[in-house]
Design goal:
The complex is a heterodimer of chains A (476) and B (153). Chain A has helices at 2-31, 40-48, 52-59, 69-85, 89-112, 117-132, 134-141, 148-164, 171-185, 190-201, 209-228, 250-257, 261-278, 287-294, 299-322, 332-347, 361-381, 387-425, 442-457, 470-474, and strands at 241-243, 246-248. Chain A is mainly α and 476 residues long. Chain A starts with a helix and ends with a helix. The chains are: A mainly alpha (476), B mainly alpha (153). At the A-B interface, helix 1, helix 6, helix 18 and helix 19 of A face helix 1, helix 3 and helix 5 of B.
Chain lengths: 476, 153
Amino acid sequence: MIQVTGRSRATLLSLVIAALITIPLADGLYRVPIQVSDSLEPIVVAQKADSTLSLLKSSITFSPTTFRPSRYLQARWLLQVADKTGLTYNAVFRGVHVALLLLLVLLFLLAVRVRDWTDLVAFTVAFPVLIGIHTFVAMLLEAFPVNHYAEVGVCALAVFVLAQRPPRWFIPIVVCAVLALALSVIESGAMVWVTAICCAAAGMPGIKRSTVVATTVMFAAYLVLRYALGIVSPGIGAHGSGFGATFYSAEEVAQRFDAHPAAFMLYNVTGGLASLLFAEPRNGVYSLLVAWRAREIHPVVLINILSSLATTALLAWYAVTRLGTKRSAWSEADRAFGASAAVFLINALLTAVYIKDEIISVGGLFYAMCTFIAMRPLIESLPRRSAAVAFLITFFLAADAGLWTFRVAGVHYQLRYDAFKIRNDWVEVLREDKQDDWPHDRRELALTRRLRGEALERRTTSPSFMPRWGDRYWVE
Amino acid sequence: MGGVIHRLIIATPCAALALLGAWWSVGLPTGGGLWPPDDVTLAEAVATRNNAEALRLIQRGADPNRASPVREGLLTNGYDVIVLPVEAAVAAQRADSVRMLLANGASVDDRELRVLRCLERARRDSGVREILDARAPGEPDCNDLRLPTDRTR
């Protein structure tokens, strides 16, 4: 009875903590206007299409390297929702963005399942890791105009949550549905299939052979469809990417690395994994090298590296002490840890051609999941340890939690900065002194004008009114 | 008991953030919260690189040819100034702001052009100079000219 009370209080408190941290974050996210880059063009395309079907057909031919039909369909549906409800476009598109954030937090809560006070303490470290990791803020800042990386994150976490539950007849259907959704918005949707496979391989109860077979058939069909449509994967030089201390444009990447693609890909995959584990490099660029060259290191680099290093050490401790035994001897937590670790390790492979924080954003979610699982036994062991050791571990965990919490505060700063920048981008659209550049199509002009007007009415703060030290401590 | 204290210490940073989150959330309905939108004059919007806010204010009727106060710390240290928006743009070394203001109703006569060009000589910016010099080539005479950002008393 006491246990039940304790469990419910700890669970309730975890919900309260998550809500209190997420609400201001959701507000910051909602204030960011619809972007000009990556968003205006698909919105215009979505609106101009004669019908949903014609949009679907034509969207397949938009790019030789991407297959993202839902990108345009979702934009069209949201435009229709705005028109039917009388809401502003910004309210609808940014509302979806906020809903995805809330879903991510909710699914993380469901995945960690805080039951007692030990869980709650582990949660107070893991939750800041979830929000504070650089891949999370990168995911929040992305929009095409719907945030596809967040959609993939939601789908992958949903699969993980289902995998934790007892097997049910509907699980293969649901997992296939979320895989189809994820694959139709962005190529990183493959991480949903990876998640299902990793959960099954780790022996999590909810994913059985039927789910593995169904999702694998679906993923194979997706690849065949891409091939049939003549859609190829982007090669080296299709995107800019960092190497060492320098970020190179797409052309520069092609020039420098086309002759040695394997070495460049190995660098990228290693970098993608290192980015998740040690917060370095960022987009392929090692800030430590930049700092060494400039003879000046910004505190943000140290904060990010130290917090990630400490957490990764914790994960390594757990993996070494718990996963050495046969899989059949693994506990429920060990299986969840094994699956989560495998997901973020495999996620790094997706960075082979170029590194971008968003690409490894699913890995970031599972890194936080691993943190929760690894924290629990360490906290539980504290009363059994000597006073000195218990103090040292407590100090280590509290310092790590403090650094991650500071990184979460930086997410607010970056969201405000982004809102300011994007709102100012709209000033350059439909410039009074460049009316010749305005769209000639009346509907397109009206839509652009409305989006611009809404963005300008979305008041933000200027970085001039935010702490001057914010850049050095929060922006890398 | 020792275990409880250890746990409390570990949870403290996150709990502190949650309390701050509660504080920020309480302020949201009244337009407060963490770093709420600025309440600025047109010149201040320009001085803080906030072209979007400047444009919004102009669209709402603010006169781009009327001087307005700019609080200390934005263009000047230790004292407020009252400047034209275009003077704020030049002082803030923002060519994009100068261009935006000129495209949205700001007018610059010969006397004001001299002020702006001298202000640019004091706060150099190649983009701003290019715009201003296109209107009057050659070096401006800045002798005995008081700049709008100078302390008045």
